Each structure stands twice: as C-alpha cells, then as structure tokens.
Amino acid sequence: ATVSEPAQKCCTENIQPFLASILEELMGPVSSGFTEVRSLFDKEVHEIIQDFQKTNDITKLKENMDQLMNLPFNSVKMEPCYLKVNLLQELLQDLKSRFKVYHIDFVIQRTQNFMQELMENAVYTFEQLFSPNRQADTVKVATTIEKVKLRVLK
C-alpha cells in the first residue's frame, strides 16, 4: 500500500507519456523484419514457379518444394530478415539508460524466433495447400503455385 501510490505516480509521469513513441520507434525494425520474411517467401516461391516453367519437371519441383520447407532453418537465407531486427540493439540501448530496460538480446532473439516461426507457418501452409503429388495437369501447376502463394501471403 505504501509503494502503490508513488509507483503509480512514477509510471504516470515518467513512463506512460513515452509509451506510444517507444512502441512506434521499436515497431520500425520489427515491421521491416517481418516484411523481409514475407519478401523472402515470395521470392523463393517465385523462383520455384520460374524453374518449373522452364523445365516442367515434377521431380525437380518436388526437390524445390523440399528446399522451401527447409527455408525457415536456412540461416543464410533468413539472415537478411534477422539483420533488420538487429537495429533494435541501438534503439534499445537508449531505452536501457532511460527506463532501465534490460535483456536487450532476449528481446531481439525472441523477435527473430517469431520471424522464423512465421516462415515455418508460411511454408507449412503452402505445403498443405499445394502438393505436387496431387497435380495431374502440369500445365496448371505454375498457375496453382502462384494462387497458393498469394493465398498464403494474405
């Protein structure tokens, strides 16, 4: 009871007025990281479509699909996404001194984990909606892949 009123006053005066601007500032790198995940997925599926249109090879398509399923675990391809979030390091340093925010690395790591999880969900959903085994007409495969990609990106 003795601490409640001073703590509430401190939060109201020293933290609450800054919350909206802090959130806005932090969301920049987070949003750009998730946008990069979306772009990477789009680019990878687009390459699968291009490759299939050149070859019409269902076996090669299955190999490409297997590679797509491993995309969330491909650190080289996911690295540009993760780098976008590393900008939080600089932004959180200022917060650390002003508001005693600790565990900056944990915030960045969790954000990157969510990005990987988002990619896992995207490729899993893509796999569920499109299976090369169910495609009887190779003429429609590229169109089907594009439709499924757009559905997943929504």
From TrEMBL:
Residues annotated as domain Niban 1/2/3: 9-154
Superkingdom, taxonomy of origin: Eukaryota
Similarity comment: family membership: Belongs to the Niban family.
Protein name: NIBAN protein
Species of the source: Rhynochetos jubatus (kagu)
